[in-house]
Amino acid sequence: MKKIIFLILITFLISFFLKANEESWNKKTHAQSNDPYASLKAAVNAMPSNSGALIVLPNGETISKNPNEQFPTFSVIKLWIAAAVFYDAKNNGTQVNDDTLGLITSMLTNSDNTATNTLINGLGGCSNGRCDVRVMQVADDDSYPRTYIRREMLETATRPENDNLTSPQDAVNFMQNLINKQIVDEETSNKIISILQTRTTSGSDPFKPNSPLPSSADFIGKSGILGQGKNDVGTFIDASGQRIYFAIFVPNGGIGTDQAISNIEQLIYNPSSTTTTLPPTTTSTSIPGTQTSVTARSCVKVGTPTEPKPAICNILTTAPVGGGTGSTPIAGQPAPTVEGSQLSATIKEQFGIEMRGAWDQQHLQWIYEKFYELKQQTRFIELVQGEPVTLTAGIPNQETGFVEMSQTGAYASDKDYFIGTLIHELGHAIYHNKSMAGNLTGEVNNVFDRIRCISTYSRCQGDKTENYPEVIAFCLNNKAVGSMHSEKWPQYREIAVRIMGFCYN
Amino acid sequence: MKTILLRFKLELFLLSIVTLVILGFVIAVVLTRNPAPSDISQVPESIPPLLLPARTIQESSFSAYFKTEVGKTSEADLRKMPELQEKTSSKAGLNEFTYNSAFADRSNTIFTEDSLVAFKRVIPVNSQTWEAPQMSAYEDIYGIAEAQHTGSTSHGRFAKTSIYATKGVAFIFNPSTGEVYEIQSFSPTTVDQYIAKWGEDIHDYSNDVHEEPEEQAL
């Protein structure tokens, strides 16, 4: 009996060896011939050394770069969060109700961070770099050995050891499981697919404006953006009608990353295409979050998610976004020219800020240019979008619950003062309208309690709610309403960077 | 026949061992799972629950909250709690005990009257994650507030105080986010008496007059 088992084993090993040799030879021969994917391979190879990609072609062949290394997920992690919510409901013998389904839809289609955090908290939440097992339950599947969910969205970006991580291989595994209807069950997989399809076809995806793929490609996927980092994970039908999976992670891409990823996707879709005809990336759609990007190498999951991670997982290189120094503004793309008559509409469309009243073109231009810059560099726009700014002939304020701003008097010609004051007023909106976990008012107020106001602004001296917007304005504009107490700034700056992702001073 | 019986017994024995090991493993996994978020902690009914995840409630900073009850806990008991600090009271005729909260300028506080706890307030906020319970969850428990005021000296001009005087509880919260900043417990009373005795934080900003010698009001 033992001999038979031994023989079977030997036969299996020999077959395996021969098969592997054959595949290797085929690959070499294929490479030497007119390889249809040569351009794609070259494009992947040309990606930055600290980036990762995995493309699974219809024949099962893969093109990759660092496919098993871990990268910050940014919003891509929302795929696992969505699955966890469905999984949890199934475990409890319940259905995902309409409200929760609405949150999932908003999370996946608009990359809504607030909705995501609500869902995470509904599953038990995350704290100090660890999430409840209910949050982790899908990511903990064997299919995703390098995927960690360790924080809520936009939380404490200065602690890279607490970041959410995955690998290109894990991300592709997720998409394959989704298409194979193995994310929880067939019904759940279909629901998630349906939501992700809406994301593409409705044109509501602000993170993928220049997709090179036609609608017939039936793209299903999720992108993630933080600072200058960009990820894109998905699956689609290529030009020959066959399904392809891909995952691209560029944690510190800088300007042009969007276009580079689009080029690669175009080459995946149609390997013989040229990418020069792609529309240029004229607008930045990044949702900035931090100046810090992280890469983790050889950090391999060991044990349960609640166990301490290997030390190597914590040895992460940190680098300011785009190669800046952390205090030096990084040159972003200049704001594209917009006709004066279109400025107000553009501000609303691109930043979610409605400019109410008869604003003059000069002030709208100032706002447009500054908001464009802030959207590329910081979280500011994300935190204030939806806030209307009403023109007032009186004193700027947010006392009534909405921002009123003036364009006359000192604000008529002093751009820095105008912008600083506007950011101050919108800072009030962040203070009052965003959760403490997102706006860190508690931390700023606790510093205020120790060292008092950051500026000379009189109302700020005894009112902590006036200190917070001064901190935000200094961080983003280097000029606020009052003059700055520079000796206090280091104590505020650390928190301001965590709120905004970046400070200009 | 004997050999077969022995072999059967041996296999049965091995099967039992394997079953026990698997069972033990399953039990261990179940027991070591993180507890699910606790919506309502094990506290006396008269104390509003801290509607926070279990891991937050377990923070030592909240232990005094769970160990004290209005009208029942004595000053002698409070003095045995090492986390409490006895202070000169800001209210005449009352003694004051405080312990740290997430907000540096607003301690968790207990006032005693006639040697018993008469009022206590707690900041139900995790000082690390800044998570806070939602007011809607308390409205589910307590219903519509008997009175509501806008403006709080401690929590800003938009903060609202919902008073459930006859139930002996009040909440200060952010109406935009629903986050509860503060929970107060006291002996059941009327709204007017609550405001007179415990409502000093309520502050109507609409009547404030600002003098802005340095900058304009912004």
Helix content of chain B: 25-40%
Number of helices of chain B: 6
The strand count of chain A comes to 14
Radius of gyration of chain B: 26 Å
pLDDT averaged over residues of chain A: 77
From the spread of the alpha carbons, the general shape of chain B counts as elongated
Average predicted local confidence, pLDDT of chain B = 81
Strand order of the largest sheet of chain B: 1-2-3-4-8-7-6-5
Structural classification of chain A: alpha+beta
Largest sheet of chain A: 5 strands, antiparallel
- Euclidean distance between termini CA atoms of chain A: 76 Å
Series of secondary-structure elements of chain B, N-terminal to C-terminal: HHHHEEEEHEEEEH
Number of strands of chain B: 8
Largest sheet report of chain B: 8 strands, antiparallel
| Cα shape of chain A | elongated
Task: Write up this protein.
Chain A folds into three domains: 2-33; 43-322, DD-peptidase/beta-lactamase superfamily (Beta-lactamase, 3-Layer(aba) Sandwich); 340-500, no CATH class. Chain A has helices at residues 2-32, 38-45, 78-91, 98-109, 113-122, 133-136, 168-179, 186-201, 257-269, 311-314, 343-351, 361-377, 380-384, 415-433, 436-439, 441-451, 464-477, 489-500; strands at residues 52-56, 62-65, 71-72, 126-127, 130-131, 165-166, 220-226, 229-237, 243-250, 292-295, 317-320, 355-356, 389-391, 403-405. The N and C termini of chain A lie far apart (76 Å). Chain A is of the alpha+beta class. Residues 21-33, 201-210 and 275-331 of chain A have low confidence and may be disordered. With 218 residues, chain B is α+β, with helices and mostly antiparallel strands. Chain B has helices at 2-32, 54-57, 63-67, 75-79, 135-142, 191-198, and strands at residues 85-87, 95-99, 108-113, 116-122, 147-152, 156-164, 169-173, 180-186. In chain B, strand 6 and strand 7 (169-173) form a beta hairpin. The longest helix of chain B is centred in the N-terminal third of the chain and has 31 residues, at 2-32. The A-B interface holds A 121, 124-128, 132-134, 155, 306, 395-397, 399, 401, 421, 424-425, 431-437, 440, 442-443, 445-446, 449-450, 456-459, 464-466, 481-482 and B 33-34, 36-37, 53, 55-56, 102-105, 125-132, 156-158, 174, 176-177, 179, 205, 210, 212-218.
